Amino acid sequence: MLVLILFLQLIIFAGCSAENKKQSETTKPQERGEMQFTLHQEFMGELVNDVNLGIAFNVPNGWLPIPDSTKNYMNESSGGAVQLSYVYTDANQIDAIMVSALQTKEGENTDSLTTELVKLNAERFGISEESIGIFYHNGIKFRQLRITTEQNVIYKLFVLPKSKKIIQFDLIVTLKNVEEKTKILETVIGSINNYF
Predict the structure, then answer these.
(1) Tell me: the pLDDT tens digits for 29-48?
(2) Which residues 6+ apart lie within 8 Å of 13 measured at CB?
(3) φ/ψ (deg, to 5) at 3
(4) φ, ψ (nearest 5 deg) of residue 44
(5) Which contiguous run of DSSP H or E holds residue 142?
(6) Residue 188: which H helix or E strand, with range?
(7) Which class is domain 2-12+41-194?
């Protein structure tokens, strides 16, 4: 499954200890302040309201969860660095949304840690400043990277809800589908909120 292959590539740096890597002086994110997103009702599917993660979001209409056995295999493959909570794919199982909670130590500064994770991923994928951003939505701080590979565009969001956990959203769309799926991605991001 394409989603499994992409996941295995993405987890390599997701759980890396920030203290073991040098900071990049060249990757300075653009701070965008509060952002508003249009919620396109026709694309809004199931509401996920997760008390343990401290977040709520809408899955795209018609997207389905992957089998638990596949998700469990993906979690085992990460070596504990990432714990996938949700993985949804479109009907063709090409485009996907993965939601995970990153493991942190008690008392660790999650804002500083997300800064380091963004830098590590930016270095790993050769991301320019224009593809990195910080914004706020629904009272939540987001750090976003846009990663473009030969076949996909990946929006990697590190979300800091009131729960003080780091929640990672990976929105993966094939390059040929980016234009077509822009409103779906906007709706998913716009629906992310604190648990209610």
Answers:
(1) 567 777 888 899 999 999 99
(2) 117, 120, 121, 124
(3) -60, -40
(4) -85, 120
(5) strand 140-148
(6) helix 178-191
(7) alpha beta
